[in-house]
Design a protein that fits this description.
This protein is α+β, with helices and mostly antiparallel strands and 144 residues long. It has two helices and nine strands. Helix content is 19%, strand content 40%. This is Lipocalin-like domain-containing protein.
């Protein structure tokens, strides 16, 4: 009886050791690491269109990016920055790992991402008849 109990306890111990091991210690993949660096609240510091400073036209939006690939902007700057949306990450070559593709189809090139700064670039062409929008190459510099 003692042998059977010892064998059962040994099997239970081995089973606990095997099932108790998980992958929490594994390093997240490149996309998850990038998303973790990106997922913060960012404050607009500078906005340029075709190299011209237009920061004042944007009324200081705050961009919040979340780990579930959603974002909010307060106050929104339609149509450049909608109040909220979702995005995917597209792998690119260069200094950064991924670019952002918003659910409205707008592609944002991540030209810099550090612990304190985020630079995004986008090409925007206003729809015909939209007088107050300016088309061109936009660059946004955000800080945490």
């Amino acid at each position: 009886m003692n042998r059977k109990l010892t064998a059962v306890l040994a099997l239970l111990t081995i089973n606990l050791l095997i099932t108790g091991c998980d992958n929490d210690n594994e390093k997240p993949g490149p996309e998850k690491q990038f998303l973790q660096k990106l997922s913060f609240t960012w404050h607009l510091q500078q906005a340029r269109v075709n190299g011209v400073d237009v920061t004042r036209a944007f009324n200081g939006p705050i961009l919040t990016i979340k780990g579930n690939k959603t974002f909010t902007v307060a106050p929104p700057v339609d149509p450049i920055w909608p109040a909220s949306g979702s995005f995917t990450l597209r792998e690119v070559s260069g200094s950064q790992d991924y670019d952002i593709v918003r659910n409205d189809g707008v592609e944002l090139h991540v030209s810099e991402l550090s612990a304190s700064q985020l630079k995004l670039q986008m090409q925007y062409q206003p729809p015909h008849g939209r007088v107050s929008s300016v088309g061109g190459q936009y660059e946004f510099v955000f800080s945490r």
